[in-house]
Write a structure and sequence with these properties.
The structure is a homodimer. Chain A has about 260 residues and is of the alpha/beta class. Chain A has ten helices and eight strands. In chain A, strands 3-2-1-4-5-6-7-8 form an eight-stranded mixed β-sheet, sandwiched between helices. Chain A is elongated and about 70 Å long. The interface between A and B is large, with 80 and 80 residues.
Chain lengths: ~260, ~260
């Protein structure tokens, strides 16, 4: 099967951008569903597509149904959708967290189409830079999804459920925890009459560096240099927050296990 | 005093870029010194400036001497330079770590001129994006250095020694520790047949987001959502590395102290 008609289910942040990218490239989305009629209208009008907000109004004959909806809604929508569509249809979700197998009780053909980026409606996104992680319970559908992904981005990967779970933990470190370190920096600065403005170019450069250099080679700072004098001075400056001292210490020791601290 | 002649001492990564920026804007560097004659020649030829590698050959009559040298060389070079130059000269170092007061025993007028970015010779840098942190023991020299900084970048700040020490800790969190989190992510991926390519766009977006949004508002992920199910699943995936589990847990609890973990 080549995919020639798609129903997009969900018009939140992911659906909004994914819908535009697919329809812009291929023009093969035939219908849009959102529980919220205002979200459905916003995207439907933009793409000039019919939209509905009742599952019973969804076209039954599409090749592919993309569930771009919240994790905790996937199962209930899948259950309702099963009643509505052809048995041969391929159904994928776009989640980084939910196993593909939650779809198994409802569909013969299922998979994942997960664009790995954070999306917000008010920020344009160049889809061609985004890694797309796909999977399907049938090899032939893996190829179909891969072909679809490749029309959007040269960066597509077949990633199974076990890998995707690891990918999500890794993203927590690289994105969520990193952002929290920025917050720690900002709070340290604010307490001393400075602002994060001072570090913003350095933050960009840090992220930019690992685009071409492995993090192990890009590592700088007192820990990797074995500069214990600076480390002790820093621990002293953090004395009012023992938890933060511990965090500083455990990250420093991970960077350089030879430190005597 | 307005600064009309500068001797640049050091032609390493900082000296290389700072020298080009100042001389390009103002043309007032009169001489270059480096302990390494090959480094001196590289930059001296590029800027068409006289260069020396003996402190006794340094011009004695410049208004400003900039020590762009390693932290552990500052004191010894300062001591030797003191014998060579006029008493009224202003001497600054470019370090984020060393207090300005290490220069106090040697010079009547001293300070700091610290461009806050990581530099490497093979990467062009747009100096106009770089925050420049300045300080001086005399108010009038603060103004002189501020005027000099403003010719290079609109982002100049008067930052005293105590603030600069905090700034350095904050930079360790925002840059060094962040880079280590990228490494952790890379290792998790590698163990499961994936590469950091998958996360590079997300890493760039994370750094890009906090350029315009405070980190507290940019925070996403299981911890801030209170998604304990995902957190427990992640801890389970990290079970082979208890130290990494602890790091995951302490960062998650800092992000959301209400988590029951």
């Amino acid at each position: 099967m080549a995919i020639s008609s798609i129903v997009l289910i969900g018009a939140g942040n992911v659906g909004f951008h994914l819908g535009q990218a697919i329809h812009g490239q291929l023009g093969i989305i035939s219908q849009l569903y959102s529980r919220s009629i205002s979200n459905a209208a916003l995207l439907g009008d933009r793409l000039n597509l019919p939209y509905v907000n009742r599952i019973s109004d969804i076209h039954p004959n599409a090749d592919l149904y993309i569930l771009a909806i919240k994790d905790d809604a996937i199962e209930s929508v899948a259950k309702a959708l099963m009643e509505q569509i052809q048995e041969e249809a391929l159904v994928v979700h776009t989640s980084g967290v939910t196993p593909s197998t939650v779809l198994a009780p409802y569909f013969k053909n299922y998979g994942v189409f997960y664009p790995l980026q954070t999306f917000s409606k008010d920020k344009e996104i160049d889809f061609s830079t985004i890694p797309i992680c796909i999977d399907a319970n049938q090899i032939s559908h893996q190829s179909d999804l891969k072909a679809l992904a490749q029309t959007l981005s040269p960066h597509s990967y077949i990633i199974d459920d076990a890998q995707r779970a690891i990918l999500h933990v890794a993203a927590v470190f690289a994105n969520n925890f990193t952002n929290h370190l920025f917050r720690i920096a900002e709070e340290l600065l604010a307490k001393n009459d400075m602002t994060l403005e001072l570090l913003k170019p350095l933050i960009l450069e840090t992220a930019s560096k690992v685009q071409s250099l492995p993090p192990a080679e890009a590592q700088t700072g007192p820990a990797i240099r074995g500069d214990q004098k600076s480390i002790l001075r820093h621990l002293d400056l953090l004395a009012s927050d023992p938890e933060l001292q511990n965090l500083y210490l455990s990250l420093s020791k991970r960077i350089n296990p030879d430190l005597k601290l």
